[in-house]
Design brief:
By secondary structure, the chain is mainly α. 77% of the residues lie in helices and 0% in strands. It is elongated. Residues 1-8 have low confidence and may be disordered.
Amino acid sequence: MATESCKGVLAVPLGNALISIQCIRDQVRDGESGDHGGAFDLSMFWNTLNQGVKAVSMAATLVSMGSSKPPQPSLQVLQDEEKLLVSVLNSTLTLSEVYSCLPESQGVTLRRQVRDATVEVLDGVLHLTQEQIMSTRGVWSACDRFARLPKVMGK
């Protein structure tokens, strides 16, 4: 697959992922967890939150591992990269949704600490995504250089 085709295929999902993660982070940072009525099970909340954190961690690990391999601009690699981005987005969205289930009845201090910890995780994912974009742009720039090389050497 040509470099130009790779750019078009990968640029949109990376850019969309970055924007989506920023929005999720901003909603958690600027919003409040909500009271959804009914009984609240703190133990269940912590189990679900821990599962969400593990899912984000696993998705981030997979993205890091995927970006540590030499680039091979094939359709399969690009599809795998897009699946990783979807996994990252889903896990960050799940984490933010779990946070939003923590009711006011659990206290301001706990809600603030959970919110701050959630934002810290989302900031980390955002940074990882930005680094991925910057790394990808660096590879594209290096690949584009080949198109500008002279095709024959003069004597």
